[in-house]
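User: My advisor asked me to double-check a structure prediction for Pectin acetylesterase before group meeting. I don't want to rely on an old file, so could you generate it fresh from this sequence?
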Amino acid sequence: MKLFGFWAAAAFLCLFGAWEVNGILEINEEELFYTETNASYYNESKAVFGNNALLVGLTLIKSAAAKGAVCLDGTLPGYHWHRGYGSGANSWLIQLEGGGWCNTVRACVYRKNTRRGSSNYMEKQLAFTGILSNKPEENPDFFNWNRIKLRYCDGASFTGDSENKAAELQFRGQRIWSAAMEDLMSSGMRYANQALLSGCSAGGLASILHCDEFRDLFPRTTRVKCLSDAGLFLDVVDVSGGRTLRNVYSGVVGLQGVQSNLPRICTNHLDPTSCFFPQNIIGNVKAPLFILNTAYDSWQIQSSLAPPSADPHGYWSNCRKDHSKCSAPQLQFLQGFRNQMLNAIEGFSNSRQNGLFINSCFAHCQSERQDTWFADDSPVLGSKPIALAVGDWYFDRAGEKAIDCPYPCDNSCHNLVFR
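Assistant: Sure, here is a fresh prediction for Pectin acetylesterase from the sequence you gave:
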């Protein structure tokens, strides 16, 4: 089971780059390490990761060019597809990749020379683990489905539609989403008898924003649901009293032409930036939606609550990297963040069709990491790991609305610590 520790670190490394751009802290691959009671795993995890996980090749969407559905630099978007078989041959799982956002021309110009803005830099193969695994012992409900990971190269959670000719930037996330869905529908997804739209981080936000569009692709007889993992980004005050993430989102929405692709039921009464925050839209999503999140999301602590830009004297430097080094007042601040998260989902949780798994861990993205999705020592709520909670909800085997007690009560967490 110690192998899952390696997988945990390696899977998480796929999510982030290695810099701070305009106040958004991107997590450094050389700084991340995974910790549990008796183990620390560094970047040598990559040595075993590829040898044990299913590797799936990149497919570029050739039809996207004619639709103007291109990455920031104008290259074709793409996805990784492992075909379903047996009882899962007509079941489809779409996983939307995460990886932050770009909110200024400068940030997007930088991004277009990375895998987050150009298919030229994308890995030609990706390891499929967690909810994407093809092994029943690792992924009991979805292992033999058609499992697709749609790569993220627009910087606005697949919602923008504009351009900046001077900087040679294409903001075409909405078109990428549409072109990918059209391509997959023509490749057999139209015959699906069940489908799940999922996503992690910025992809988790995208899975909320596109959930009802996904539902509308299929007949009403098709079981269609959505899962947002680590996508519940909150519009909250940071440690300086400012609103770091709101400022970032305002830039994303304005720069990339996101407004026209946001839910009108929200923009009819709130400003567009507010409608990019999940707390203002989850109550109006018609399709069944499952929210998987940690109450102390590592990314939000690092980049929204206590980023260096809001902490010029470094008072939060140790705490934001390692929760065990937080002072009592700092922990109280983080408990306040948890309370705001619970308030944000209160109305959402009243719907019988929706699901929740909010654990009190210091982590980010738990569905793609094998150790947190389904393993012998996975995080649990009520003795149930995440994979079984999601499966029970998806297949209507049980209603799932699990909310953890406050830190430090949960000893099943796989917490992340940063150098």
